[in-house]
Amino acid sequence: MMKVRDSGMPDEPYWESLFDIPLILSRLDIGRSHDVAELGCGYGTFTVPIANAISGTLYTFDVEPEMIARTVERAAGLHVVAAERDVMETGFGMQADATLLFNVLHCENPTLLLRHAAEALLPGGEVLVIHWRHGETPRGPGLDIRPKPEQIVAWAGSAGLKPIGGVVDLPPWHYGLRLSSHI
Ligand SMILES: C[S@@+](CC[C@H](N)C(=O)[O-])C[C@H]1O[C@@H](n2cnc3c(N)ncnc32)[C@H](O)[C@@H]1O
């Protein structure tokens, strides 16, 4: 299994106190997408609100069965398909209008992951990234493996993606990037 390093989670209420979720969805313009594919549902922190904000289906993948079970429980009645899948190893296996790499680009092979996310885009689609700011934050991977936005933009270029607009500020602790395919 190619589980993203340092991707363990604190308890659910604490994790979810660390994000302004409506602000993140709004600043990344998630509502423009129909179908969305997400790497790492975790507790369903973003799965559930995004499924509520889009017109299509949210497909989400995780390597931890208990994370999938929790997300399925919270997503009852919504258009959510949650499945066990090692996205690092096998890619998304589908295409969507947006692919989400939220809090995962500190993995060992970020360019491969960005390539998987790019390959999963329908024409006109976007890879949406959020990550912890590079500095003092209450959680997040060690600064030695935590990417800065300009590092992600450089990896994205190698994966055939370019940024749309600049770095998106997602207070209190995150930043975001919207990436589109060159073609
Ligand atoms: C830090 S958590 C972030 C969860 C969610 N994206 C969020 O921001 O709330 C990373 C999640 O990715 C999952 N994960 C790690 N490696 C994975 C892989 N290779 N394929 C699919 N999911 C993976 C972990 O099990 C964990 O639930």
What is the fold's blueprint, element by element?
Elements: H1 12-16, H2 21-27, E1 36-39, H3 47-53, E2 58-62, H4 65-74, E3 80-84, H5 87-90, E4 96-102, H6 110-119, E5 121-132, H7 149-158, E6 161-163, E7 168-170, E8 174-181
Parallel strand pairs: 1-2, 1-4, 2-3, 4-5
Antiparallel strand pairs: 5-8, 6-8, 7-8
Helix pairs in contact: 6-7
This protein binds S-adenosylmethionine.
The site of S-adenosylmethionine has 21 residues, from strand 2 and helix 5.
Q: Can you characterise this structure?
A:
The relative contact order is 0.18. Helix 3 links the parallel strand 1 and strand 2 (58-62). This protein is of the alpha/beta class. Helix 6 crosses helix 7. It is built from seven helices and eight strands, in the order H-H-E-H-E-H-E-H-E-H-E-H-E-E-E. S-adenosylmethionine is lined by residues 2-4, 7, 9, 39-40, 42, 45-46, 61-64, 67, 86-88, 102-104. S-adenosylmethionine (SAM) binds next to strand 2 and helix 5.
> What is the β-strand count?
8
What is the radius of gyration computed over CA atoms, rounded to a whole number of angstroms?
15 Å
- The computed structural class is alpha/beta
How would a crystallographer describe the biggest sheet? Answer: 8 strands, mixed
> In whole angstroms, how far apart are the ends?
32 Å
Strand content: 25-35%
Order of helices and strands: HHEHEHEHEHEHEEE
Helix content: 25-40%
Low-pLDDT sequence parts: none
Net shape: globular
What compounds are bound to the protein? S-adenosylmethionine
Oligomer: single chain
Estimate the mean pLDDT confidence: 96
Helical stretch tally: 7
